[in-house]
């Protein structure tokens, strides 16, 4: 047996494992790095977040990724080069984080890397007959493994698609393992570039649990800010959007996408909800002359409407519903306020708070998820979730890269 296979077997048999989870989202603000101590697997999983940090990306990273991100046509050479470059860049940030956490690389059992999504294309979106769902994350795990000298699991979404899923969202796995409750109806809401949720009713089995994208979170707002304010990556403290007024015609036009008519679970991305989508909606609503403040106010309300409408649809039959929120959207006070107003008007039995109430840093949640997915791949005796579950195939996720 090769020594690296022996090491992998040894790690899988340990009582506890130190796993670093990595998440790089569509906002391109930085790499989320969560150091997790995990024991057990499946519904017996126990996960403690030992430390967490986000290391901001340099401007070169943002510009290189933006050159190919969510574009149906681009340079194959750029994709090829960036696949290696991002892997090496992420490895450098992992090494920095391990040092900052006060650990040695030899202390870490596994790195779990999401990679950088550059294109997401479910069949409902691409509409090419006889072609499957597809997604692409770059930042090759071999480079991370070699440069950190740590076994790395990466490219988690491909197996999900191969087994019949859509590659996103994957949050159901971690949400079910960590947050399913027999006593409380829960919706786990994550507001990143795209907003997604996991439906966790207290009664019933795993067959009733699912995750779904529900529409744009921060993605169009961030893109608009970056295209109109050269020194701003996002609307800090909702300063711009709070100074504007919602244009109802534009709001309704934005909310008319066929995506919102699809049943759960479903998936989407910035390939659909982007500045071109906004511009087309402005033309149709005869709202091309709006101030930046009014556009941002309307985009903020659009995200709040997408999120709230989905929660209301799912939550109206659930008494005593609790909504736990994570992701960058929690830092937008106007967005959170508008979600709360919409929910209080139409779903008064629901309460909302962040995952801090469940002892999990809401900024760390997605990075922790990938640590949990890696742990399942290494240690689960059986697959946790039903193989019959639509869009949630019961498979191990992630490719293994060895440092030697």
The rough form would be described as globular
Name of the CATH class of the largest domain: Alpha Beta
Helix segment tally = 14
What is the helical fraction, as a range of percent? Answer: 25-40%
Overall pLDDT confidence: 92
Largest beta-sheet details: 7 strands, mixed
CATH homologous superfamily placement of the largest domain? ATPase, nucleotide binding domain
Class by SSE composition: alpha/beta
Cα-atom Rg, whole angstroms?
A: 21 Å
Overall domain count: 2
H/E topology pattern: HEEEHHEHEHEHHEEEHHHHHEHEHE
> Can you tell me the residue ranges where pLDDT is under 50 for at least 5 consecutive residues?
387-391
**What is the CATH architecture annotation of the largest domain?**
2-Layer Sandwich
CATH topology of the largest domain: Nucleotidyltransferase, domain 5
Catalytic activity: 1,6-anhydro-N-acetyl-beta-muramate + ATP + H2O = N-acetyl-D-muramate 6-phosphate + ADP + H(+)
EC number: 2.7.1.170
InterPro entries: Anhydro_N_Ac-Mur_kinase, ATPase_NBD
GO molecular function, one term: kinase activity
